[in-house]
Amino acid sequence: MVLNKAYNELFASKNDSTINKFLGDIGYQYFNLGDTSSFKKTNKEALVLAMKIKDSFSIADTHWNYAIYYNKTEAYDSAYYHFNIAQSYFGTVNQSYNTAKMLTGKAFIKGRFRDYIGSEILIMEAIKKYKISNNYKSLYQSYNSLAIIQKSLGEYEKALSYNEVALNYLKKVKKKGTYYEGSMSNIGIVYHKMEGYEKAISYFKRALNNKSLKVKNTNLYARLLDNMSYSRLLNHDTIGIKNIFYISLQIRDSVNNKAGVVINKLHLAEYYLAINNPTKALILAKEASGLAKKIKNNRDYLNSLLLLSKLDKQNATAYLDKHIKHNDSLRNLERKIRNKFTRIAYETGEYIQETKILAQQKIWIITTGISVLLALSLFYFLRIQKTKNEKLFLELEHQKSNEELYHLTIQQQQKLEEEKKKERNRISEDLHDGVLGKLFGVRLNLGFLNLKGCDKDLEGCKSYIEELQEIEKEIRDISHDLKSNLTVSKIGFIELIRKSIEDQRKISAIDYEFKSSDDISWGQIDEMVKINLYRILQEALLNIIKHAQAKKAVIKFFIKKNELILTIEDNGIGFDPNNYKKGIGLDNIFARIQKIKGEFQFNSEINNGTSIKIAVPL
After folding, report:
1. N or C: which end of the chain has fewer CB within 10 A?
2. Residue 16 CB contacts under 8 Å (≥ 6 apart), including other chains
3. Any domain includes 529
4. Angle at 447 between CA 442 and CA 452, to 5 degrees
5. Residue ending a domain, choose from 90, 110, 128
6. How far is CA 39 from the centre of its chain?
7. For 584, what's the count of Cα atoms within 13 Å in the CB-facing half-sphere?
8. Contact assessment for residue 41 and residue 57, using Cβ atoms and an 8 Å cutoff
């Protein structure tokens, strides 16, 4: 058998969670197949396992299985007990729909024992939960049940109102089946109870207009035939109803619908009484009474006793006595069962309350443990964070000191260059205003002398005067060169870069090549840009020494498309950018580039070196 094989394979897994997940389903399938012993055994195992692993949903599900089983076997007190427990557990895991189903099951049982008010309350609770999930089918069924309850209480107008609400929800149900025909039957019965037989017949006919009803829902089809004929009988229309009664009886008998057979025979008995055939009526009434008693159909058994008291005048008193005694005993039984339902609800509530208290205690213990663990984790995290903050603070202070040092170096360099410039200006002025003026005077005086001598001597003198003029020109050019505007910041920044590269060269075996384009106006570039470029270069060179294992590095500054470009390339071992974890050094480079609103690119390949490109808008 497939189920037995599934059962054995499930336990072979030896995994409680897996077993728990499917064991209840296997038990339910045993129940559907009518294997009661296997169902009870499997469902019990499922419940024990669910309790062991404290799976509230599975606990509820196994109790639901028990409820369905006991409901079918008409052990209603046991069914109610299991519905009640299942409802409580479904409630603890916020299963609104399943909780509503348990309420509906309890309502059905209360209705069976004529506790209509209790049944109505439970259905109202279920409706609230069905509305949360917009379960239109369950809402239709719930309002349909409320209509039946109101009909049983004699509140026919309310019954019709609830039927109307049910039909409105039915419009939203996709797979309607024969629900519409069932509602037409129910409304017809309400009008029948109100003695509106014509209206009752019209609703029965609406349902019977479905030509496929006999196949789709045989019991409903037979009931409609019987109810329509009975309404016609009470409306004094007996034409052709006998055959319809017998068609309905034959169908019910063929599908073993014993409760339906009882009702059919009682209606036929009334028909024969109406056409003055009391003998046939008495036979059918006795058959109906015997069958009703056998199947414990109390309602129709009581009705059969009343009918027999009318048909059998000689034994009328005996039948009435039986009716009174059976009705009294039935009321006592119903009262006891209703009390039992109340006790079950109370005891289950106490059990669930104790379970909740234990669960709350467990939650408190777990919460306390988690709180302590979180507190320790927070303390550890704060300590680590404090250490990181202190380290970061020291790094920032170091960075700040370096930047201040850079500023001081630049300022010192500028002062030196300024002093050099002043000295050059002084020498230029001395040459121009002093020496040059004297030479000019000497040359001018020599030109005015009336020298006499041979042509050779005069030619020599003239050449000396011209030479003095050339010396004047050279002195003037030197003076102008000394006074020309040299870019102090350019000399300072580039020299600082060269010095930094030379410092790195001393501590490594790397050959450095440095190039700076002559068209860069360093004096016009913001000091913060130069400071950050200087620090970025230092960081990059340090990374090359520490990680690259390079033999050569090339550093270039140049202008391209109104951007100052810095490139740093090495021929080291490189790395895979996809598997590279960014460190503090690279983070610092990124941070500095963001400060000067630059863009950063880097490329690297394993065994093929690394290149960095930084572009700063001018």
Report:
1. N
2. 49, 52, 53
3. yes
4. 120
5. 90
6. 37
7. 7
8. no
| Residue spans of alpha helices (H) in 237-297 | 241-254, 258-274, 278-294
What confidence tens digit (pLDDT) does each residue in 129-140 have?
Answer: 999 888 999 999
Does an H or E element contain 171, and which? none
375: its two tokens: 């507190």
The secondary structure of 51-73, three-state, reads: HHHCCHHHHHHHHHHHHHHHHHC
The C-alpha angle 65, 69, 72, rounded to 5 degrees, equals 140
Distant-in-sequence, close-in-space partners of 17: CB < 8 Å, separation ≥ 6: 53
Give me the percent of the chain exceeding a pLDDT of 70: 81
Q: By the 8 A CB rule, do 564 and 525 touch?
A: yes
- Mean pLDDT for the chain? 83
- CA–chain centroid gap for 562, Å, is 50
| Chain segment 69-97, per-residue pLDDT in tens | 888 887 888 888 898 889 889 988 888 89
Q: Are residues 464 and 403 in the same domain?
A: yes
Q: Looking at the structure, tell me whether residues 405 and 465 fall in a common domain.
A: yes
- Quote the Cα angle for 422-426-431, to 5°: 145
Tell me the residue length of the chain: 618
Taken in order 444, 446, 451, 453, is the CA torsion positive or negative?
negative
How many CA atoms lie within 13 Å of 368's alpha carbon, on the beta-carbon side? 5
Domain stop point among 90, 124, 150: 90
What is the tally of structural domains in the chain?
3
Residue 228 domain-assigned (yes or no): no
Sequence-distant (≥ 6) Cβ neighbours of residue 560 within 8 angstroms: 615
Half-sphere exposure for 323 (CA within 13 Å, toward CB)? 18
Backbone torsions φ then ψ of 513, nearest 5 degrees: -125, 125
Planar angle of CA 247, 249, 253, nearest 5 degrees: 120
Cβ–Cβ under 8 Å, residues 60 and 98: yes
Q: Is the pLDDT of residue 291 over 80?
A: yes
Q: How far apart are CA 328 and CA 306, in angstroms?
A: 15
pLDDT beyond 80 at 398: no
pLDDT in tens, 112-123: 777 888 889 999
Residues 6+ apart with CB under 8 A from 248: 222, 223, 225, 226, 229, 260, 264
Which of the 8 DSSP states describes residue 74? T
pLDDT score of 73: 84
Which residue range forms the structural domain that includes residue 575? Answer: 500-617
Name which of 172, 178, 227 is nearest 200 in CA terms: 227
- pLDDT, greater one: 1 or 166: 166
Angle, to 10 degrees, between the axis of helix 156-170 and the axis of helix 179-193?
170
Residue 204 is assigned to a structural domain of this protein: no
Record the tokens describing residue 411, joined without a space. Answer: 């300022």
Q: Are 72 and 28 contacting, i.e. CB atoms less than 8 angstroms apart?
A: no
CA dist., res. 326 & res. 306, Å (int): 12
For β-strands 511-516 and 552-560, DSSP reports them as parallel
Question: Does some domain include residue 46?
Answer: yes
Q: Quick check: pTM over 0.70?
A: no
The two structure tokens encoding residue 540: 């990059």
pLDDT tens per residue, range 235-286: 999 999 999 999 999 999 999 999 999 999 999 999 999 999 999 999 999 9
Instruction: Give φ, ψ of 155 to 5 degrees.
Output: -90, 75
Euclidean distance between CA atoms 63 and 71, whole angstroms: 12
CA atoms within 13 A on the CB side of 313: 2
Listed in sequence order, the residues at least 6 apart from 132 whose beta carbon sits closer than 8 Å to its beta carbon are: 96
